[in-house]
Amino acid sequence: MPKLRTGLLAAVRTTVFFLKVLPTMPSGLIDRVTPSPTVERLEYPTRDGTATGDLYLPGTSGPHPGMVVCLGVVPFGIDHPQVPRLGEALARSGFAALLYWSPAMRDQRLDPVDIDNIALAYDRLLAHPGIDPARSGLLGTCVGASFALMAAAQPLVRERVRFVGAFAPYASMWTLGEAIASATRMTMSGRVPWAVDPVTRAVYERSMTSLLESDEATLLLRSLPDGASCDPQPLSDDARLILPLLTPLAPESASAALRQLPPVMQERLTQLSPLTYLEGLHAPLIMVGHDRDDMVIPVDESRRLVAALGGRAGVRYTEFGMFQHADPTKRKLPLPRLIHELGKFFRFVYPMYRQAA
Q1: Which fold, 2-172+278-356?
Q2: Can you say whether the dihedral through the CA atoms of 233, 237, 239, 245 is positive or negative?
Q3: CA–CA separation, 295 and 196 (whole Å)
Q4: Average pLDDT over residues 240-260
Q5: The predicted structure's pLDDT at residue 152
Q6: Which among 80, 200, 266, 318 is most buried, taking Cβ atoms within 10 Å?
Q7: Which residues pair with 64 in a beta bridge?
């Protein structure tokens, strides 16, 4: 009976989240039957000082399971209605959710410092009197999903992470960089053309040039899209090695150019790759989801990540045909298929609520 009650509670909370987070679903009844959340400004330490984030708290007595939500690069801005919708959906369904915003990602760059900072934010969240550390974890979308996985493997928190939810992560900056530079992606039948999303391309370019002097980085970025207008003669040795990767390349040339990057840049790519951290990932539940037609991060990255986890217990992988990179409003599906995809989304989310129940 206790297991049945726990399962039913998890199903109810999953339903609340499901109806509240999807903008196409009716959620008026949820607002009437669940207490309104409160939003608290929570300070947490980072390697660069103190940061502050919004903590969405359920309107019921605690302690509550908590999570740090890593939203990654959000091109539509932090004031977009979907951001508070997510926080409120998690709070109404029983989670206390701290939204983590990265200054680097808001500048469309990836920086390894966020790995430590997310772990520090999670450590601070667990110290909150309204949080139950035994039922808490991390959730991320897009590059935020990859950073959530890497943060969950940090020694500071890895034994206190009960789950990691990762929607549309990348597995390795090496393989993702090769895909972006060549505008191709690897499938089970070989490489195929890939129309790289403009935001993906921008983040790649700004991340690849982030270790250069600002004037030199600006010079390279201004030479885009093909790099033809950039004279390599006045560039530093490092910039000359990076420049080819900002131009169209064949897959084999992109791979070779990545291997010829300066050692510090090669180390950075490795630091930014979730595959590097799998040994330290101890969470008993790891949920990975990806849309097969994702144009921002190829689904092959999630497939590669799950394959590397090697059938580890507690790993759950779901592929969708409904989301355009975590956005269910951009695709119109026939009703039977829509119902099927919504059912998959419910089953994808449910284990997180079961783990926290």
Answers
A1: Rossmann fold (3.40.50)
A2: positive
A3: 6
A4: 93
A5: 98
A6: 200
A7: 131
